[in-house]
Amino acid sequence: ELLLIKKDPWKRLIFAFALENAKFYKRAINQMKQAIKKLPQKKYFKLDLAEIYIKWGKFSEALNILKNLNFTNDTYVSKFCNLKKEYLLARAYYGTGNYSQAYLIFKKLFNSYRELFKKNFFFLYIYGVSALQTGEQGIGHYLFGRYYQLLGNYIAAIFHYKKALLFLNKKDKMYKMTKRYLKILKAKTSREE
Question: Long-range contacts made by residues 71-76, C-beta under 8 angstroms, separation at least 24?
Answer without folding.
Answer: 71/43, 71/44
